[in-house]
Amino acid sequence: MASLTGCGGGDDGGSGGNASGGSCSVPIVNPDATQVSVWGWYPNLQKVATNFNNTHDDVQVCLTNAGQGVDEYNKFQTAITAGSGAPDVIMLETDQVPGFALQGGLTDLSEYGASDVQGKFSEGAWKDVSSGDAVYGIPVDGGPMAMMYRTDIFEQYGLTVPTTWDEYRAQAEKLKAAGGPLMGDVPSNVPAPMVALMQQKGAVPWEYDAANPTDLKINLNDQNSKDVLDYWANMVKDGLAGKQDQFTTDYISGVVRGDYATYVSAAWAPGYLTGAGAGEGADAGKWAVAPLPQWDPANPVQVNWGGSVFSVTEQAQDKEAAAVVAKELYADDESLKDGWVNQIIFPLNTSVLTSDEFINNQSTFFNGQTANKDVYIPAADAYEGSTYSPFSNNFYAEFTKEITAMNNGEKTGSEAADSLQESMETYAEQQGFTLS
Predict the structure, then answer these.
(1) DSSP state at residue 281
(2) CATH number of 34-142+307-366: 3.40.190.10, 3.30.1330.10, 3.90.226.10, 3.20.20.105?
(3) Tell me: the pLDDT tens digits for 106-134?
(4) Residue 6 has what pLDDT?
(5) Where are the bilayer-spanning segments (predicted)?
(6) Which end of the chain is more exposed for a tag (fewer CB within 10 A), N or C?
């Protein structure tokens, strides 16, 4: 990570060119219009960008897939450090926005009409892209969390769908006693959902404001965080949950085999599992989804895992034109419908969330269940937003180590939380933050 004072500036990656050095992957319909270079990776973005170019006379998108996730972020980091080479607009996962914003790599869109589209999103979705009065991205999609479960396993073992985490453990104990499969899984390689569950219980891991970019408060070992980590550490220790890395062939094979009764995940998970081969053939029709179990049913809290935004970089030459793209790319009805129908995104735009077609959609993966209406839309509506780590990659790497130690019985959840707090404080100070 570049120093906090390193600011991406310059005018080599701006409008009219493709910062990746390649040609545009979509036709430029109006060659006399301002061209805005965009990095993004979603599988239907070529269609989305083509829709944009066909409906805009003054601005055109020059789209490049510069890689997904870390591959793209490394290229963007290099461009920030060099002061050139960034695109005008970049797709980022939501939790990556703070780190790049604090480096000065992203433009504050509150100065470029962000308020024009704010009403199209929930308060929680907007908080995710904001810091104080500043706005560093326009939401595209999100991941309201829920509990997917195997109806065949629940029926075979007489399980009741849990509404609290205490009930979840009780059903896991019943399942084990009957010789059934594991209730769920605690992966070390994807710590983001664990952070969300900590927040669900009331933890506030990070506190900062872009107006004071070097001031930071870290709260990773408060009692709420320790309670959650101890809960899951004990689930693994007692043989109620597995510790298989997710997004792997072995994990998917286990999901298809019925090794897990539940999958605590986000609204995009059905699309991911379908693409990986789950929910098909003999595995078809066996899944349903229920609201995420609560720590305190009297005070329910909904959380989010994943999602993406379009941000304007500081290297954009024409920030007005770039802001138009950030606000309007993947925002038209045709593109949004293509995204959700094909399970590429769970859109956050309220024009979709309030549409009868989306609300009443009968999910093929969930055997005809109206999952949007029953679970995902209420979760998205109730989500109040999050403050993400200003150095997500390092944080997740350290958290992965701690969950691994926890899963292996080397540390309790509380001890893992204390270790994580210490390592993050040390790293933050090395990066020039002042801790409060």
Answers:
(1) G
(2) 3.40.190.10
(3) 999 999 999 999 999 999 999 999 998 99
(4) 29
(5) none
(6) C
